[in-house]
Amino acid sequence: MSKSYEVVVLGGGVGGYTAAIRAAQLGKRVALVEKEKLGGTCLHRGCIPTKALLRSAEVYAEFREAGEYGIETDGFRVNMGKVQERKNRIVEQLHKGVQFLMKKNKIDVYSGTGRLIGPSIFSPRAGSVAVESADGETETLVPEHLILATGSRPRSLPGLVPDGKRILTSDEALELTEVPRSAVIIGGGVIGCEFASLLSDFGADVTVVEYADRLLPQEDKDVSAELARRFKKDGVRLLTGARVLAESVRTEEDGVRLSAELASGVTELTADIAIVAVGRIGNTEGIGLENTDIIVDRGFIRTDDYMQTAVAHIYAVGDVNGKMQLAHAAAHQAVSAVERIAGMEGHPFRVREVPRCVYTRLQVAGIGESEQEAKDAGRRVKVGKFPFKALGKALVQGETGGFVKVVADADSGDLLGVHMVGGHVTELIGEASLAGFLNATAWEAGQAIHPHPTLSEALAEAMLDVDGSALNL
Fold first, then answer.
1. Which of 14, 177, 284, 460 is deepest in the core (most CB within 10 A)?
2. pTM of the full predicted structure?
3. Residues linked to residue 414 through DSSP beta bridges, in sequence order
4. Residue 347 annotated to the active site
């Protein structure tokens, strides 16, 4: 049995369901195939559950520090069962919201495993999708256009095979039923730093092992240094420029042991658990790509800036194309692909236009080029910088660490990058994104009136400082 659609989406994560919704808005007949739950990695194993746990950890840490605000507390503790219950309630509420959106937009949702098939009796070209349901029944969907949004999974390292008990992936770490006394986190990127923050705030003894010479190597060096300073202040041990020796890893009844090789020698590490957080790999296996001419490059589907693959009627959005593994990037790509399919001009995907956020307690946010990247590209740059410790609101909030840094073109004044580290900066980066979208200069963004007292004043002051005009430095 087969059914024809104008657009079929394989995968129901943020990229997939956004594509389906936008296609339905444009009057297309749409089907979406999902083998697990709508919402994908972001909702069930990524953005939302990690932020829920981070918030609980932040509240616990604030209770420990409440005396500084004149609040006396006694007898509080972490109840991981209730922490997990809260996380699951939030996830389920949002899951129901996605299900509602599918019904509202009259999108046919198929629950099952989808696999691309080659030319067949159903279609003379590759790209039809055979959907196998849990009961073994198979139905074939024949699309005019197909959008692949199959997401990603945690990457592993040789010798570090997760066992779900002592060596965990980030997925498994989200289900902890108790706070470990100690943890080794392998990887100092976004995922590793967020787990380091939440476990440290919950009171665990945390060590981060990072192969690069600094945390968050994709961010501006000044930002990485500030986050490292804060982690060390909070008792997190950092081993950068370090390589885990695979042959040294061994699990025991009460924990895990491993060795890390640094320039200074080999360090032995023991902990209750180890979390492997070394990135994610696209879900390209088992979906029938071999039945098409789609190109897979280093584990990801290759596309152009409009998400079109080597097969003209097939697109790939989100983590599976490897361009930028962020939920909001996936959503943007989905809209771009669908509008291209619909014959609209669309907006190409450009990495430099995507805000990046890290939800450690001292948060990190950035967009565009770092100072070094701009210099490496041959640009003459000028930099503005403003510390949060100079703001009244930061003092009131009790979080004065960090700064806002603005990188601008010295000749045109155009914004090249904005980089932040501090309390709640993930809520500020949207303004920098808008300024870039509108092609504002640093001076123009600095001239906009910002309310007082707010943290956003730091952004305005950093913009003005590009030309040495900051008022409160």
1. 14
2. 0.95
3. 441
4. no
